[in-house]
Amino acid sequence: MAQNSTAFIRPVSLPSDRSALDHIFRVTCGESLKTEPSWTISSYLWCHPYPLLSPSTCFVLDPGNAEGPVGYILSTPNTRQFAKDWTGKYVPSLDRELLPEPNAKATDRVDEKPTQLLQLLYGDPEKALNFSYPGLVDKWPGHLHIDILPSHQGQGWGRKLIDTLLEALRAEGCNGVHLGMEAGSLGALKFYTKLGFSRYPEVLDGGVSGERGRTGGESQVIYLVKDITS
């Protein structure tokens, strides 16, 4: 497929890009999240905090018309600092009517999945940000999320977004970055491998799979890492 010549990559701009970022997340997120209220809660976990807390390492794919962004790469150069800012700056800004805190009342109103997501959002950013895996956030302190709408996939924009981000992370003094991907997405694994990412060098599921970087349980994820020193 030929690349759209009018599209370009630019820094994220708030508040004008906010609705487009949310739309991209909702279209591209995993099927297990595409029911409400999980859909909304998860967007506030894995999309909304990045442009607010780390705008210098967040970029969008702009189609060059009035439609708004059709892709994004959202990142932070320092996951530990990001977790602190999440608790100190992001959580206080959340709308409690839209996103009820996970207390007894909230538990009565939502089912198990949304309650778990709310617990991550309000009370456990370190779990949401992969602190439980030895060395991941220390050896590869940056992390990223990248999503592109189907209309602009397969045109080389993923590589361009990654390259743009890596340059910005280096400028911030970040020497390594990690990401998580669905374990069954062989196409994504091939894409990231071509860009120099490799599996996190630990077995994470107790040896069940025998695969480095792969978690166990229902939602299996493969963690990939990349050194980005100049």
CATH homologous superfamily annotation: Gcn5-related N-acetyltransferase (GNAT)
How many strands in all? Answer: 7
Mean pLDDT figure: 88
- Give the fraction of residues assigned to helices: 25-40%
Poorly predicted regions are 106-110
Strand order of the largest sheet: 1-2-3-4-5-7-6
CATH class: Alpha Beta
Give the overall shape.
globular
Could you say what the CATH topology is called?
Aminopeptidase
Sketch the major β-sheet: 7 strands, mixed
Strand content: 15-25%
Any idea what the radius of gyration is?
Answer: 17 Å
Distance between the termini: 32 Å
Instruction: Write the H/E string, N to C.
Output: EHHHEEHHHHHEHEHEE
Number of distinct helices: 10
Pfam family, one: Acetyltransf_1
Protein name: N-acetyltransferase domain-containing protein
GO molecular function: acyltransferase activity, transferring groups other than amino-acyl groups
InterPro entries: Acyl_CoA_acyltransferase, Glycosyl_Hydrolase_84, GNAT_dom
Descriptive overview:
The chain is an alpha+beta fold. It has one domain (8-173): Aminopeptidase, CATH 3.40.630. 38% of the residues lie in helices and 17% in strands. It contains 10 helices and 7 strands. Helix 2 (38-46) packs parallel to helix 6. The longest helix is centred in the C-terminal third of the chain and has 15 residues, at 157-171. Residues 106-110 have low confidence and may be disordered.
